[in-house]
Fold Branched-chain-amino-acid aminotransferase.
Amino acid sequence: MTATQLEFAQYPSANPTKEADRAAILANPGFGNHFTDHTVVVDFTVDAQGEGGWGNARLEAYGPISMDPAAAVLHYGQEIFEGMKAYRHADGSIWTFRPEANAARLNRSAARLALPQLPEEVFLESLRQLVGADREWVPSRDGESLYLRPFMIATEAFLGVRPAREVSYRVIASPAANYFGGELAPVSIWVSRNYARAGRGGTGAAKCGGNYAASLAAQLEAEAHNCKQVLFLDQFNNNAVEELGGMNVFFVFRDGTLVTPALSGTILEGITRSSIIQLARDRGLDVQERVITLDEWRDGVGSGDITEVFACGTAAVITPIGELKDGDEVISAPDPSAGEVTMSLREQLLGIQTGKVEDPHGWMTRLV
Ligand SMILES: Cc1ncc(COP(=O)(O)O)c(C=O)c1O
């Protein structure tokens, strides 16, 4: 058995959720509130010769993790994660979207957090294992999916500050409806002036827990101002738009051009973002990855040059941005009756993911 192909031992739950209870959850899943019956675990250890490797791959019942209180993740936050979805198609088969891209991003995050590389095949098999065991949990209604959360944590009990030699990779799953709840509606955004999300040389491009912990104070400010998400600006106070707390941002201009902030090392490289760039270019649209400032946003909306602004990410897919609050100033959303490009890209992307429209780039992978 090579390191890239592991046999997953099977320890199915002795006490799975009763069908009626699962049906009640699936009737109103919300987002991130309920978890399926199983989890997948793969452990990384370093042997006496200093050689590291993945092993002890298993499917087991979902439940609390037993861990030494000195485990490195609890002290130094050596942790990374991914977020993706499994979709039930009309024929009952279950698919996921661009999992190789998530595997690659997990490994880029791992490199930044000094965690071990996980072979792509182990990543893909972990998804097949979990979704195979918990297939009944994959919702079938429009707009719903099974959210998959792969993550990697440093479990070694050791208080020195160095990369842990014991690491655990896991996947959990949660049935999901619309991230913002209810019907699709524009989200209101709060401009964070007191906090930055990332700085040059930092971890902004990695999907690590610490980035999200650091965003919470800004998120609280947003909520205090009746906004749903935070917009982070660049670290140099040049008013360059970076991204939202959990989503990338796009602007649609009157001439059809799409603009999104360039990847600068401080922005998470969204898989939805890169898919939108591709789909827009397929349509012959000009897509620019460049600096775009708050001033350009304000002036563009004022002059009518910017006709649509939207946020995108796995959880919320593509969601129009409503008004933007910057202290006492409000930059209104472009004409709410617009939104054609936003909605048609959303429809195409969701259509590909749910198997209703052609998948021209072979982005979908069947899991079950
Ligand atoms: C900070 C941040 N930016 C962007 C995204 C969008 O990434 P993706 O499209 O891969 O979900 C996410 C979500 O994962 C995120 O947490």
Q: What stands out?
A: The pocket of pyridoxal-5'-phosphate is lined by residues 83, 243, 246-248, 268, 270-273, 313-314 (CB under 6 Å). The longest strand covers residues 52-61.
